[in-house]
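Researcher: Re-running this chain for the archive, since the previous output was lost when a drive failed. Same request as before.
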Amino acid sequence: MMRNIVILSFCFLSFVIKSQVIKSMKRLPDTGQNTSYTLTFGEDNDFNIDMPYFIDNGDGTVLDTITGLVWQKEDGGEMTIESAFNYCDSLTLGGFSDWRLPTAQEGFSILNMQFVNPSLDVAIFSQSAAEYWWTSEFQWNDPTKVWVTNAGGGIGNHPKSETLSAGGVKHFHARCLRSDITPISLSNHFIENIEGTISDLLTGLIWQKTPFSDSLSWENALSYADTLIVGNRVDWRLPNIKELQSINDETKVNPSLDNSIFASGNAKKIWSSTTLPNSTTRAWYLNTQFGLTTYAEKLLRNYVLCVHSPVESTSSVALAETTDFSIFPNPFTDQINIVSKNGKMYDYVLLTNQLGQKIYAGSKIEQVDLSSLSPGIYFLKINEFNIRIVKR
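Model: Regenerated structure tokens:
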């Protein structure tokens, strides 16, 4: 059957609280991806929340206005992880001496997913021969491996012996940071809400607790997220890769998500909405065996964990509940009719099932015979030029 969705405003009721964290960044920055790679709504480019904005201080340092962190403009060059700690501890730059190596999440925060090799804004940060940049975090229970970001845009756990100075063949560089913002100690990272959602106190994001039970292709994952209803909310989406990486716990493995909070089950590989810009048939995902980010062909099947932004986003399409259009019959059997009120017109409709799979897309759904569809719940989205209306 079909019925109108009522979008409710409500408060979360919480009953589970876990894990202490340090909040060192004001906000989690966007990936910077500003190109569209699909006609399916919900990709990274469709949501621009806290887009990266850096200020060159003119003294060899760069301010990230989103996180509040201050970075070296030019990295310190290739070195071992031990030398990287010493280098940052002894660095004096921009009149300050309180420099340090970034945490894994801080290091990942300055990457820009619109670029590759390096995945940095080189109009801001100086070019270097770095293939990887050290962070201050070692793999849990293995002091021979360190979390590093890479020039291709990912983050992963690598043997510290891989760098040239330790006898390896790769270039691991150090880029230090500092901050004038006092880090905040949060007694809890996540709060579990009884309606099946998780509140992240570090980023402010709200997460689906349980991934969808089946794996999906990337396009179907976007559509599933766009039709999801959890906790009376319809404005769910596939997270970008920075948002997805932000819930990773570097102190846990297999899964690297807190399984007392997230019911991740067999969902080892979780899609993000972010495309690999130099190979656009691929998209980034989080591998929860250890927590590294990597990419796969979009036609392959990975799992889906959706996110909701409690703050207003600058989505290129606004979500609205409206009575400007009448949908009948409802429930339908073989045909759907859309009647405009107040003389308004629509330019496009999309009919999907509960998996987010497309049934029809176009501007003449009234002429389509739908009698072969199985009984169930379907979602109809009406694009009234700049307004997206959701009906169930």
